[in-house]
Design a protein that fits this description.
This protein is an alpha/beta fold. It has 2 domains: about 130 residues, Aspartate Aminotransferase, domain 1 (Alpha-Beta Complex), CATH 3.90.1150.10; about 240 residues, Aspartate Aminotransferase, domain 2. Helix content is about 40%, strand content about 15%. It has 11 helices and 15 strands. A 7-stranded mixed beta sheet has the order 2-8-7-6-5-3-4, with helices on both faces. Bound molecules: pyridoxal-5'-phosphate. The site of pyridoxal-5'-phosphate (PLP) has 12 residues, from helix 3.
């Protein structure tokens, strides 16, 4: 049996060959602990870690010392939200957008249970937080705001620079979960002054299990408490032996993105448009979700009217594609993102999220479109 076509690039991506090559020495011969700088092996590890840190910083227009390695975006988000909230003055509140990933919503709700007041910022019909919506909903007490750079379901990109301006004027720090944006669209933190940014290597050709929290140097400094104790690594903010091989992989993925990101974005956007054109030609009444222009180049999110979501997903055996819903306790639940957009429950359940990767080809797009169209037609017969 041939493998299904992988079009779930928002969940993860294959490791790019150049990334695997960069990691290989650290999976085989090299093995030093970057904290053991008294000898050759330790210094070699520390040097590789610092090279990787510089590669991450360069992609984002940050400084290497502002980059803190984590196990991924989930940890980076937890560290940003809990680490900052726990150091804020009494009476401070937290605000996050209604369409955040669970890796932001869950820590925000935990903080709320621990008596940090929480405001959910609403979104426009494209799933974006606009400066006006932020201005209208942000309470005077808000000192930390978390709004994602781009949405992991519908791909919409937020006007992050303008949101940062509102936050700063109102005396709040802005954290951005950029897990879906980094490596896919240009990010220059010198021109987009967010204060904290989370990223994840496996969303753009890097390995799973590594990411970073970028903490901009500000005056006064952003207050941050570590989640764990046990060592002085990563400026005492993330104790534990750093995973050098994984960090090297993240650095290599950033390096690759730095040189190929613009061309690659055009390539996948062309393929994404081809997929949408084919699907529309085959099934006239598909609904496309998300912003038509301000959207990730590798995202296509559609809802399929007059089809039951569970049957649609069960029949799509030739493509690995994500449902626009979360499978909670054994049954499909409409996604909170689509619900925030006002999409009906049945339509939300019959949704498909396509995510293209660096490995996606035109042939795969055509074959995937044919399969999806055939399944929808069969289900409607
Ligand atoms: C927006 C967003 N944030 C956070 C995460 C979690 O990232 P990681 O797998 O690195 O913990 C994801 C991955 O699905 C995501 O899409």
């Amino acid at each position: 049996m041939t493998e299904p076509i992988f079009l779930d690039g928002h969940s993860t991506t294959p490791v790019a060959p150049r990334v695997a090559e960069a990691m290989w020495p650290w999976l085989t011969g090299k093995f030093g602990n970057a904290s053991s700088q008294g000898h050759h092996h330790g210094r070699q590890a520390a040097d590789s870690l610092e090279t990787a840190r510089a590669q991450v910083a360069r992609l984002l227009g940050a400084e290497p010392r502002e980059v803190l390695f984590t196990s991924g975006a989930t940890e980076a988000n937890n560290l940003a939200l809990k680490g900052v909230s726990r150091r804020l003055p009494e009476g401070s509140s937290l605000a996050v957008s209604a369409v955040e990933h669970r890796a932001v919503l869950d820590p925000a709700r935990r903080l709320q249970r621990q008596r940090v007041p929480l405001t959910l910022i609403p979104v426009n019909p494209h799933g974006q937080v606009t400066p006006d919506l932020l201005e209208q909903t942000l309470p005077l007490t808000a000192r930390l705001v978390s709004v994602m750079w781009a949405n992991n379901e519908i791909g919409s990109i937020n006007p992050v620079a303008q949101l940062a301006e509102v936050c700063h004027r109102r005396g709040a720090w802005l954290h951005c979960d950029a897990a879906q944006a980094v490596g896919h669209i240009p990010i220059d933190l010198d021109h987009t002054p967010v204060d904290l940014l989370s990223l994840s290597a496996h969303k753009f050709g890097g390995p799973q299990g590594v990411g970073a929290l970028v903490i901009r140097r500000r005056e006064p400094p952003i207050p941050l408490e570590p989640l764990w104790e046990g060592g002085g690594q990563e400026h005492r903010l993330r104790p534990g032996t750093p995973a050098v091989a994984l960090a090297v992989g993240l650095g290599a993925a950033c390096d690759l993105a730095h040189t190929t990101q613009l061309v690659e974005a055009q390539r996948v956007a062309t393929l994404r448009d081809r997929l949408w054109a084919r699907l529309q030609a085959g099934v006239g009444d598909l609904v496309r979700n998300g912003h038509p222009l301000d959207t990730l180049p590798h995202n296509l999110h559609v809802s399929v009217p007059q089809v039951a979501g569970d049957r649609l997903h069960a029949r799509l055996t030739e493509v690995s594609v994500s449902a626009g819903s979360a499978c909670a306790s054994g049954h499909l639940e409409p996604s909170h993102v689509l619900r925030a957009l006002g999409v009906s429950e049945s339509l939300a359940l019959a949704s498909l999220r396509f995510g293209l990767t660096w490995a996606t080809t035109a042939q795969q797009i055509d074959a995937a479109a044919d399969h999806v169209i055939a399944v929808i037609r069969e289900l409607r017969d």
